[in-house]
Amino acid sequence: MPGLAIVGAQWGDEGKGKVTDLLAERADAIVRFQGGNNAGHTIVRNGEEFKFHLIPSGILYPDKACVIGNGVVLDPRILLGEIEGLRRRGVDVGNLKISANAHLIMPYHVLLDTAGEVKLGKLSIGTTRRGIGPCYADKALRLGIRVQDLLDEKILRTKIRAALEPKQQALRELSVQRRKLRKEAGEGDREAVEQAIEDAPDPRLDLHTMTEEHVNYGHRLEPHIADTARLCWDVLDAGRTVIFEGAQATLLDLDHGTYPFVTSSNPIAGAATVGAGVSPSDIDEVWGVAKAYATRVGAGPFPTELEDEVGRHMLEKGHEYGTTTGRERRCGWMDLVALRYAVRLNGMTSLAITKLDVLSGLDPLRVAVRYRSREGALLDRFPYHQSILHSASAEYEELPGFDAELDECRKESDLPKEARDYLDFVSDFVGVPIRLVGVGPARDQVVWRD
Ligand code: IMP
After folding, report:
1. What are phi and psi of 366, to 5 degrees?
2. Whole-structure pTM over 0.85, yes or no?
3. pLDDT given at position 120
4. Ligand 1, residues 34, 112, 124, 248: which to mutate, most atoms within 8 A of Cβ?
5. Measuring CA to CA, how many Å separate 304 from each of 108, 127, 289, 335, 338?
């Protein structure tokens, strides 16, 4: 291995946490390189369920460095909550290392994210409202506050003042419109607005209070703050393995996903170099993780979406509700046009297919093998033009389904022939071997393939 990137191959929620957890057995360090607490992964270990939003999956191994890289945007309040939660459950968090260069999600980012979405109305992205977009925007504007700033009160205050100043107008408007906003918002939105207001109780976002609060966060996080790029180099230079764990997924990539219905960072493998501080030649293997079907949360094109009883089957049997927001996920057939695009974009060397068990009871199975544009043209490749993608419909290959439940399968020969044929079809179509197959949520509910 030594450098191995694990990325989402669809629209997120593919089960990257479990795959990372399994591959981490062979690694010395696990690094998250982008995103923030918009992500969510669940790991089941010895019957105990762990849910993380920010902390990399590797935290359950006390002997491995578990790193939040410089490319991550970090809400210190949320991170401290996760650290506390793990400590209470007896998990040693001593090996958690946080890049001094990672940017902080500040209370005004959360407010601006929510306000932006409410303002967009029907055109909203469906963000997780965790402040991700506004935080990355400040980073690009060079108005960001970084983890290292927490350690110097004077610098921190100066930087918060500078960051707040250009937002005064929007924030003033926000405070004036608070009541109006709440009234205008629909049920779901109202809940999010109230949550955001609770997260930042003072809509004027008092500079003094915010500075004090963050100095306190700094004291608590200080033992974890490190030069994480150097940490990665040391592990790699010693010939040992580093896993670069992506959050979100390829089709949510800011540059290569279904813009503007994307997240504000780059979840593809190439971004691991920037978000962790390593070179392209440090990445030897890229694992893509895809569900045996497809899901998406939030708005945006989804050519294989099903709004029938098959989609319902996937939602119910696959428990397709967001870990972060609890939203119902949109469900549909596996899209091999999009998957082949993700394979090429990431340079995938292996695939892990998760939740194959969810397909049992469906016959026939379908996979999208091309799109048809509104004008009737057949498209073998993922269209780069938004309007074409938005109006494209999927054309399918039908494969025989299977009825047997897969949760007890542990070897390839345990899988029904139809399930094996399904995997072979996917693998042949995208040209990448499927090395791991998920057949249930528990850690041991996997089938390894040669
Ligand atoms: P943001 O990342 O909160 O700005 O949201 C932008 C888009 O990415 C929305 O459609 C979200 O639903 C989606 N998104 C963000 N994080 C995740 C994730 O971890 N899984 C799936 N979708 C996500």
Report:
1. -130, 145
2. yes
3. 87
4. 248
5. 37, 21, 18, 7, 10
